[in-house]
């Protein structure tokens, strides 16, 4: 039986920005990716999902964004306020940074002046001011991911989806971007849904961590993360952090928290 994980349990808590209700997904080739998944994310919470490869983590994000339609169940989300950062930065090589960041606003028919203003604000927010005219081939991996973040920010998202965006980066760049996303989260108070294979990253970033089973993916455990924001890199070396990471690791291996 699936565990119903709901971040909207406290009295007078804000309404969920994203809610999955008994979601199942079976692909046309018969692959059963998800089974009876239910949980909600409210503004000001950062939820990370961990689980074995192929358990349907990324499928959840695609359903939330509307890229896939669930086989059963329902999703509640304001899709025109969803930001999505993919595993790859997915930048258009013939567009410079400014034009890449403007892309979604352009596709949505936003006027040239307004989309430039929004894009410039987003570029400054992610620390790329001065690089507006650079093309992707001139950017490092970390800078490309910042462009991807800026492009999503232009939509002023109430829900921010992150599909393991830092997995291909070196450890130092990855940790730096973890801190930058945390700052965005503190500033914008969006509802974050983050996918990663790194337990350490999950604990460091999140207000809660959900553990999924092997395919078909189900939510089998939940861990509330007690550490206050802002978090500093030294947190990773504390006994409390190590214990919580170990508990999540045991859950992933089929143990109990």
Short description:
By secondary structure, this protein is of the alpha/beta class. The protein contains seven helices and ten strands. α2 runs parallel beside α4 (141-153).
Description:
This protein is an alpha/beta fold and 257 residues long. The chain folds into 2 domains: 169 residues, P-loop containing nucleotide triphosphate hydrolases (Rossmann fold), CATH 3.40.50; 65 residues, no CATH class. It is built from 7 helices and 10 strands. Strands 6-7-8-4-9-10 form a 6-stranded mixed sheet, sandwiched between helices. The protein has a 4-stranded mixed sheet with strand order 1-3-2-5, with helices on one face. A hairpin with a 6-residue loop joins β9 and β10. α2 packs across α3, α3 packs across α4 and α6 packs across α7. The two termini are 18 Å apart. The N terminus is likely disordered.
């Amino acid at each position: 039986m699936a565990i119903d994980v709901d971040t909207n349990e406290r009295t007078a808590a804000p309404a969920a920005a994203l809610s999955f209700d008994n979601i199942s997904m079976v692909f046309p080739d018969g692959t059963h990716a998800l089974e009876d998944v239910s949980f909600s994310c409210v503004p000001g919470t950062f939820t990370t999902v961990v689980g074995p490869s192929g358990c349907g983590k990324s499928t959840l994000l695609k359903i939330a964004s509307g890229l896939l339609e669930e086989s059963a169940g329902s999703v509640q989300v304001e899709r025109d306020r969803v930001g999505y950062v993919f595993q790859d930065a997915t930048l258009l090589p013939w567009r410079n940074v400014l034009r890449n960041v403007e892309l979604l606003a352009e596709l949505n028919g936003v006027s040239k002046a307004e989309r430039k203003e929004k894009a410039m604000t987003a570029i400054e927010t992610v620390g790329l001011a001065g690089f507006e005219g650079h093309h992707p081939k001139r950017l490092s991996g970390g800078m490309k991911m910042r462009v991807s973040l800026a492009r999503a920010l232009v939509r002023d998202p109430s829900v921010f989806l992150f599909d393991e965006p830092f997995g291909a980066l070196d450890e130092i760049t990855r940790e730096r971007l973890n801190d930058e996303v945390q700052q965005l989260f503190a500033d914008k108070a969006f509802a974050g849904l983050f996918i990663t294979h790194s337990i350490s990253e999950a604990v460091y970033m999140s207000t809660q961590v959900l553990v999924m089973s092997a395919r078909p993916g189900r939510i089998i455990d939940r861990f509330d993360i007690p550490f206050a924001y802002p978090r500093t890199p030294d947190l990773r070396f504390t006994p409390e952090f190590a214990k919580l990471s170990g508990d999540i690791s045991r859950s992933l291996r089929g143990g109990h928290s």
